Here is the input.
Amino acid sequence: MGNVTVIGAQWGDEGKGKIVDWLASRADMVVRFQGGHNAGHTLVVGDKVYKLSLLPSGIVTGTPSVIGNGVVLDPWALKAEVEKLRGQGVRIEPDVLMIAETCPLILPIHRDLDAMREDASGAGKIGTTRRGIGPAYEDKVGRRAIRVCDLAHLGELDPQLDRLCAHHDALRAGFNEPPVDRERLKRDLAEIADFVLSFARPVWRDLDEAKQRGRRILFEGAQGVLLDVDHGTYPFVTSSNTVAGTTGSGTGMGPSAAGFVLGIVKAYTTRVGSGPFPTELDDETGQRLGERGHEFGTVTGRKRRCGWFDAVLVRQSAAVSGVTGIALTKIDVLDGFATVKICTGYRIGDQTLDYFPAHAADQARAVPVYEEMEGWSGTTAGARSWADLPAQAIKYVRRIEELIRCPVALVSTSPERDDTILVRDPFAS
Ligand code: GDP
Ligand code: IMO
Ligand code: MG
Here is the structure.
């Protein structure tokens, strides 16, 4: 029995939260390793709906959950989410939630900067979640970050604040904004410190201990491979590495910990925010996908852009992230379509490509080459076994496997936790 790493294989919102929640009961620990509260996961358990952003999805099943050092942590967002979930009856105490002492903090100045930049960018904006994710990662790499462990040393924070504020004040001046209100920042940090510190630990030790004891770890990725800062549709990406390889650096567990890499793949494609999207549909079909799939962002409420399944992009994601098998989600959304299309390549001028080119100008010119398949009139919604799927839906799944060169391990057929078909147990592989 090994570990499992769940990652999104498209532009996020593939249904990672539902699958992590389903797998969590088989895991001993659930661990986030990158991103922050830009993520938004909806979990449906019976008549209860849970919306998570920063907390690992394992928290709902009471599985010990870890926020690793690769995550950027907004203390106030953490408190609000913990309180919201406690209000829904979820138990969140230091024995089930552990936070790495080395997580960099997202501060109000990061949120300000994210918004200022987006507002100043006009049509060129990235369409970020405005949560301060990019600026917080910049400060981490720039060695200016305030980290969780600093909250226990607030009396010694001044030299760090000097560096941080000197940097931000210069940027803020460029936007005609006043300097950082340093005293207020110190007050706010002092107020929130004890709450965050109550969950803070050297989690690398807990994870090492779990490894020594042969415990099963479920790594929970946020966003998706096409939003990866190296491998995604740069610059329309998030500011972290979303690929499975980040599990090692984002937790302190080393490169061999990832185990079975389960790529979560939606049976069609969606994207929220700006950037290239070759199979996007601006027509009635796109509208229908959005309505049937309830494609509105969990975090920002923005309408998600929708289009046909892009096998070229998913094959590329699977390759760069070392995907072992996929969970195909939301196939029920395609129920009732007379025909369905899959993108199998791109035409750029007189060239045909079987991968997505790196340069934005080439990406913008890429015209999808489609393969059309018959749809199915029966329903996949709520199916819990392979035998419940219409024959034509099975053909669709098999064709996807062939095109992306990866086997299907799970199929998800509704938002509900148990409407899931197990084809191959990732933990048993
Ligand atoms: P995540 O960010 O990858 O966790 O995905 P989100 O939670 O943002 O978006 C996925 C949405 O689809 C959520 O509202 C889920 O409840 C829902 N969902 C997940 N799996 C399925 C499925 O198989 N069928 C349908 N119809 N909805 C699903
Ligand atoms: P989950 O985990 C979909 C997108 C934003 C924007 C870009 C950069 O729910 O799949 P950021 O705020 O990260 O600097 O924004 O990334 N984005 C997501 N899109 N799902 C997400 O998370 C996302 N997190 C960020 O819309 O285009
Ligand atoms: Mg989401």
Q: What stands out?
A: The first helix runs from residue 16 to 24. Residues 8, 11-13, 38-41, 126-129, 131, 133-134, 222-224, 227, 238-239, 272-273 surround 6-O-phosphoryl inosine monophosphate (ligand 2) (CB under 6 Å).
